[in-house]
Design goal:
Layout lengths: L23 H23 L4 H18 L6 H8 L8 H20 L6 H12 L13 E2 L6 E3 L5 H17 L5 H15 L6 H15 L10 H7 L1 H14 L2 H40 L5 H8 L4 E2 L1 H6 L5 H13 L4 E5 L2 E5 L1 H8 L1
Antiparallel strand pairs: 1-2, 3-5, 4-5
Helix pairs in contact: 1-11, 2-4, 2-9, 3-4, 4-5, 4-8, 5-8, 6-7, 7-8, 7-11, 9-11, 10-11, 11-12, 11-15
C-alpha cells in the first residue's frame, strides 16, 4: 500500500492482485461490457469500408486522450491537418496527430508479436517524437497542478521499473484466469502506477488498452473511443486510481473501466449506424443531383475522410486532375460538399459527415 504520496511506491504489488477482483458486481457488468464491445466489433465489420472509422475514430481518441494531458486542439484543426500537407500546424495538433501515428504503429507491430516492454517504449517514443526509455533518474512525482501537492510518487530505479514491467507483460500475455476486460482494467491501473517514462505515460497507457483488445481478438480495428468517457469522468478516473493505490479498492476502479467500455462501445455503434445511413442517403443524392459523377466511387471516397482534395481522387484512380476538380465543384454546387481554403490549397469538406465525427 502507498499511503505516503512523497515516498516512491517501490513495493507496488505484483500481478495478479492478491485480493478478489471478480466480484459479483464486477462480473455482472463485465458481461454487459463484453456484449457492447462485441456489438461494436460487429458493426465495424459491417461497414462497406472500415477505413471510415480507422481514419477518424482514432483521431477523436487522440484528441480526447491528449486533452486529458491538457494538450488541447480542435477536431476541425485535427482533421484538416491530418489530411493535408500544410506545414503551418500548431504544436498541440502535431502532438495529438502523433498519438494516432503511435496507435497505427502499435497495430502494425501486433501483427508480428504480442505486446512487450520494447513495444511500449517504441509507442511512447512516437508520441513524444524522441527516444523514450524506462526512467533511470529519480524525482518523478505526480502533483496537483493547482496546489503543487504531491499526489503520488511512482517506483524509482531502472531495475525496479523493468522488473515490474516484466511482471505486467507476463500477466498480459500468459494469464488467462480472468475475464479479458477485467484484466484490461487491472493492466491499465498497473501501467499508470509503474509510470515507466518521464512523460507520455497516460497516452501510452490508453493506446495499450486498444492494442490489448485487438490482441485478445475482441476488436478488429482500433475504434473504441474510451478517452471521451474518461474526460467526462476525469475526477473519478484519478480518484479511483488513487483508491487502488491507497486501499486496494479494485472493485470500484474495475467497475469504472467496464462502464467506460460499455458506454463508449454503444456510443460508437450509434455513430456507425448514423454514418451508414448518411452514406446511403448521400449516394442517392449524388445519383439524383450529379448524374455525371461516378456515385459509388466518389461516395466511398468522401466517407473515407471528411476532407477531400483533387489529389485524393487522382490517387484513387477515379479521374485525372481536371475531371477531378469538375467532380468536386459539381458536388459543391449540389450542396454535398463545401470548399474551404487552407494555405494555398482548396479542400472540399463533407460537412454532415464531419459533424457526426466531432459531435
Amino acid at each position: 500500500m502507498s499511503n505516503h504520496p512523497e515516498k516512491p511506491y517501490n513495493d507496488i504489488h505484483l500481478l495478479p492482485p492478491k485480493t478478489e477482483i471478480e466480484t459479483k458486481a464486477v462480473l455482472k457488468l463485465a458481461i454487459e461490457a463484453n456484449k457492447a464491445l462485441a456489438e461494436l466489433n460487429f458493426a465495424t465489420k459491417m461497414l462497406p469500408d472500415p477505413t471510415v472509422l480507422i481514419n477518424t475514430i482514432p483521431l477523436q481518441e487522440a484528441k480526447a486522450s491528449s486533452e486529458i494531458e491538457n494538450i488541447v486542439t480542435t477536431s476541425d484543426e485535427l482533421f484538416r491537418a491530418s489530411f493535408t500537407d500544410n506545414a503551418d500546424v500548431d504544436s498541440a495538433t502535431k502532438e495529438t496527430l502523433r498519438y494516432r501515428q503511435a496507435l497505427k504503429a502499435g497495430c502494425e507491430m501486433l501483427t508480428a508479436k504480442p505486446i512487450t516492454t520494447n513495444m511500449i517504449c517504441e509507442i511512447c517514443s512516437i508520441i513524444k517524437n524522441t527516444e523514450m526509455n524506462v526512467r533511470k533518474v529519480s524525482g518523478t512525482q505526480i502533483k496537483n497542478v493547482a496546489t503543487d501537492e504531491v499526489l503520488y510518487t511512482p517506483p524509482e530505479g531502472e531495475k525496479v521499473i523493468r522488473d515490474l514491467l516484466s511482471n505486467w507483460e507476463r500477466f498480459l500475455n500468459e494469464n488467462t484466469d480472468f475475464d479479458p476486460l477485467v484484466k484490461m482494467a487491472v493492466l491499465h491501473y498497473q501501467f499508470e502506477a509503474i509510470h515507466p517514462f518521464l512523460d507520455g505515460n497516460g497516452r501510452t497507457g490508453r493506446i495499450l488498452n486498444m492494442l490489448y483488445l485487438i490482441q485478445e481478438g475482441l476488436l478488429a480495428y482500433p475504434v473504441l473511443y474510451l478517452s471521451g468517457y474518461i474526460i467526462r469522468n476525469k475526477a473519478d478516473y484519478y480518484r479511483l486510481i488513487r483508491g487502488v493505490t491507497a486501499d486496494e479498492n479494485w472493485q470500484d476502479w474495475i467497475i469504472y473501466i467496464l462502464q467506460g467500455i460499455r458506454e463508449a462501445s454503444l456510443e460508437t455503434v450509434q455513430r456507425i449506424e448514423s454514418i451508414s445511413a448518411l452514406m446511403k442517403q448521400t449516394y442517392e443524392d449524388i445519383k439524383r443531383l450529379v448524374p455525371n459523377v461516378p456515385a459509388k466511387e466518389m461516395n466511398d471516397l468522401i466517407f473515407t475522410q471528411p476532407y477531400c482534395r483533387v489529389k485524393n481522387i487522382v490517387d484513387a484512380g477515379i479521374a485525372k486532375r481536371q475531371t477531378a476538380m469538375i467532380y468536386l465543384k459539381n458536388l459543391e454546387d449540389a450542396g454535398i460538399l463545401e470548399s474551404v481554403k487552407t494555405g494555398r490549397e482548396v479542400l472540399f469538406v463533407n460537412k454532415k459527415f464531419l459533424n457526426f465525427l466531432i459531435n
